[in-house]
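Hi there,

I know you've been waiting on this one. I reran it after we fixed the sequence typo, so this is the corrected version. Both the input and the resulting structure follow.
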Amino acid sequence: MTQRRITDDLPALFAVLPGDYISPVTANNNLDDLLEIIMDLGRLPMARFVDREFEISSQEVTRQELDEVVSRIGTFDADNRAGIERTLHRISAIRNKMGAIVGLTCRVGRAVYGTIDIIEDLIVSGKSLLLLGRPGVGKTTMLREAARILAEKTRVVIVDTSNEIGGDGDVPHPAVGRARRMQVSQPSLQHEVMIEAVENHNPEVIVIDEIGRELEAAAARTIAERGVQLVATAHGRTLENLLLNPTLSDLVGGIESVTLSDEEARRRGTQKTVLERRAPPTFDVLVEIQERNRVAVHVDVAEAVDNLLRGFALEPEIRYRDENDEIKIQKSDRRPAAAHAGSQEMRRMPFNGEGKSRSSRRPASYQEDDLEADETSFEKPLSLKPVSIYAYGVARNRLEQAARKLGVPARLVKDLNQADVMITLKAYYRKRQRPILDAEDRAVPIYVLRSNTVNLLDQALVDVFNLSTAPGRKVDLSEVSEQVQSAINAVQSGQRWADLPPAPARVRRLQHEMARDAELISHSYGKEPNRHVRIFRE
């Protein structure tokens, strides 16, 4: 294993800062953990470290101090970033609406030799690799080291949009080794420089920092299809986050809605409309940087995306450094575990409008055995383990009522860290609010409901506690089908609507599905036990 060595050129950064800032920074903390210096007009300057931040002066930042710092550094680009020549430090500006600078973020740039050891075998494999992670976790540092390692044996070109990889100035920083560097005049032109690098400079590897636009994603796919290895970073924390990003999902193949034939749906045991991967992924391997010394690796992105869309639990390979600085690898068995209600391995389990899990393996066409009982009658296991539920946007009183009705040991908690599952509404889930993202990061199963109705809450708890349906009265499938088909024919012939006889929830779901297959609209009306389905045109 390569001995890690840190090069950060801190004296060059300190030289552009006000003199009274330096002593508090150097005296109180480990400088290897220094992330950035924050200067905001009219506020106390701050020093941010890996584990904490503190004020480095009792005097508020003045406009004169900001102007002095700006005068000592290079010109700010269109993305409001500047650097210090022959260093890796980055200074980013905050401007007011008139364009004047009112804040500076002075980020420390480091070359950490040896940091790529944890994934070096993947880097040198020749496969295209994508790095994901939150800001400040070390994506660019790892990318820089990857460029240096690859450049020892292959032709590497770095597309350096903000000069973060190779440093400011015309001469690249020694940390990139023999790799060549192409600068980008404007961030919006990054995709053009990516293509230019391939067409003009004959690279075997292209290194890119921060793919964030649709044109850049398209350029990356073009480069990969030309046989050039890509090593890049992108915005996002997990594979699931990236897949849900409409701008960048193409990097991992993208998703599309596909309508299956009745026969294919029965063979797969799914609904007729399913989500599938649209194309081969641009990147072969995806690395989620969870912490500075811990990553999750999806060694086959195509397989991981397919498993995710089919409702299987993701089992990435976990790599980390232990307390002895040795690299440990926890490999998955690569056998996808089927997602089921209440599984702690499942990241997300959305429900459709009737409260049914989208990842359910229930056949699209119901068999007679499926219709034997009213869905409101359940058979509980002899003993149920308590489940802590975090209700986000869901009526807690209704959820408690549903738990009492079913007799299940549901505990409603106010802290997501204490939750075994989350139950939320579709409106909240679509907005991707912070609790949703935090739950996904913690691998907490998420149950998504269409609305706050008691029936949907009942069904959610049924799936959470994995309750089985008790045997009950037999339903004549042929009779149900004839009734629905007669109603469909009537509506298609011009009738405004057609009401079906009252039926239990399980039968109503079949009725809704038949109406949907006929491209008609259906809604349920009334209260149990007289609730019925009405079919009509839009």
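Quick highlight: The chain has four domains: 5-109, 112-338, 349-469, 477-536.

Best,
R. S.
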